[in-house]
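step=predict obj=Anaphase promoting complex subunit 1 n=131
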Amino acid sequence: REKNSQASKVFITSDLCGQKFLCFLVESELQLRCVKFQESNDKTQLIFGSITNIHAKDAAPVEKIDTMLVLEGSGNLVLYTGVVRVGKVFIPGLPAPSLTMSNTMPRPSTPLDSVSTPKPLSKLLGSLDEV
């Protein structure tokens, strides 16, 4: 929209069900904009869906476990799978910005377009240890 609202970072992330999101970090607005997308049946086009805005100073994908880390404006480090907040992340040795959740865990704002099967939990837990 405006010149100062250009994305400073762009990445692709996916959730535990394999849904993909194109994420744009707009630092000037403290927003991470995530656009859901999927390939067409014939694999020749991308189909873009809902857009979700997440309050963020910074964000990065954690590809091995289908999540992303988001640094909120309050300084909290939060783990997301797709656009669903999973919980806060605490790093030993660093002071915790606050000990309470800044907001309640949101429910997904849009219904799933298709039924997906989550990856096996044992595979995810093994990957989490490596990360």
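step=describe
The radius of gyration is 16 Å.
step=end
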